[in-house]
């Protein structure tokens, strides 16, 4: 029985698998659209929360300002989430145009490009979250062995806002992981059979 063509059920009743394929494709594209919207939203939110965060304290009559540029891991996270948001916006526009036209992706080079882009952005955002979370843990807990003090005891507001940014960045990276799975499905379904294009049309 063909998966994509008109097959025959065990009861010898004709089944149109092309219609099922179109329904699945529409649901997958809708899920991709929603996920890319969320990634764009959380990516911008993470970049803004961390990028605009600053707190000034006076220590022994010396004014000290805490900001995200003081920690390279936070700078990396802001840049990574900005890239993820911009990339998701471009892909979001592609999804909208594809849904309006009602077209299905059959271009293998384009599918490979989307899959590769999603993979790269997913890995970059995950690495950025991991680095920022480690730096935040040191700032919160300190490192007694190296005589590193707990920075968050002095800059409470700064640390709280950074924590909110890290949570948003984590949601962005998880969304990118989910999107990578969807793009993998969209790519490897093209290798499921030679008659995929004909039947879906």
TrEMBL record:
<keyword id="KW-0472">Membrane</keyword>
<keyword id="KW-1003">Cell membrane</keyword>
<keyword id="KW-1133">Transmembrane helix</keyword>
<comment type="similarity">
    <text>Belongs to the Casparian strip membrane proteins (CASP) family.</text>
</comment>
<feature type="transmembrane region" description="Helical">
    <location>
        <begin position="120"/>
        <end position="141"/>
    </location>
</feature>
<feature type="transmembrane region" description="Helical">
    <location>
        <begin position="73"/>
        <end position="100"/>
    </location>
</feature>
<feature type="transmembrane region" description="Helical">
    <location>
        <begin position="33"/>
        <end position="52"/>
    </location>
</feature>
<feature type="domain" description="Casparian strip membrane protein">
    <location>
        <begin position="26"/>
        <end position="174"/>
    </location>
</feature>
<feature type="transmembrane region" description="Helical">
    <location>
        <begin position="162"/>
        <end position="188"/>
    </location>
</feature>
<comment type="subunit">
    <text>Homodimer and heterodimers.</text>
</comment>
<dbReference type="GO" id="GO:0005886">
    <property type="term" value="C:plasma membrane"/>
</dbReference>
<dbReference type="InterPro" id="IPR006702">
    <property type="entry name" value="CASP_dom"/>
</dbReference>
<keyword id="KW-0812">Transmembrane</keyword>
<dbReference type="Pfam" id="PF04535">
    <property type="entry name" value="CASP_dom"/>
</dbReference>
<protein>
    <recommendedName>
        <fullName>CASP-like protein</fullName>
    </recommendedName>
</protein>
<dbReference type="InterPro" id="IPR006459">
    <property type="entry name" value="CASP/CASPL"/>
</dbReference>
